[in-house]
Amino acid sequence: MLDDTRILTDIVNGQLQQVSWVIPNGTNSDHAGSTATTGGPSWVASIVNAVGNSSYWADTAIVVTWDDWGGWYDHVPPPKVISDGTSWGSGYVYGFRVPLIVISPYAKAGYISHVDHDFGSILNLIEKTFGLASLGYADAYADDLSDCFDFTQAPITFKTINAPQNAAYFLNDKRPKTDPDDD
Question: Is 90 helix (H, G, I), strand (E, B) or coil?
Fold first, then answer.
């Protein structure tokens, strides 16, 4: 497990990779039902603020999502899954919706998407952005989140997110790190 705060030091040191997949440790997870943590929202805000207040803001897209639905009520039933045994989607089961937030100077402000996005949509966006071939599974059939962006608009000026804890808190946090809850 890599140091989950490395993203913060990479931003400050101008060493942020073109694609960074960031997962908090269990101590700072925002996993539903966890009573051991309250740092999740501040942890996300610290990363977004670090990017937003750096030169990276001009050409970065941050996609925030959760790994499961958290047990909260959702009035929209999951899409029906094809179960003919041969078509794409047979055995690829959609579940309850999870939140997805797109943060970028070119994100549509206040936009609520009505497109059925997929975790593969994030990968599809990366593949299209960098001219990479599809891995051929979920990404091949997912959209690329393009409805969330408007590249003709004037870039949105970043506004710092107020949070109880900031990047310095997480960089200096000496609590034992735990694995993220990924079940």
Answer: coil
Which position has the token pair 């109880």? Answer: 164
Whole-model pTM? 0.87
CA distance 27 to 173: 10
Asked if residue 27 has pLDDT above 70, the reply is: yes
Structure-block tokens of residue 88? 């794409």
**Residues 42-81 pLDDT 10s:** 999 999 999 999 999 999 999 999 877 777 777 887 776 6
Whether the CA torsion 81, 83, 87, 90 is positive or negative: it is: positive
- Residue 61, sorted as left (phi over 0), alpha (psi -120 to 50) or beta, turns out to be beta
Q: Yes or no: say if 1 and 25 are a contact pair by the CB < 8 Å rule.
A: yes
Residues 6 or more apart in contact with residue 24 via CB below 8 angstroms: 4, 30, 39, 40, 43, 44, 180
- The alpha carbon torsion through 171, 175, 176, 182 (nearest 10 deg) reads -70
* Tokens encoding 93: 């089961």
C-beta separation of 98 from 65 below 8 A: yes
Q: Give which of 67, 149, 152 is closest to 115, Cα–Cα.
A: 149
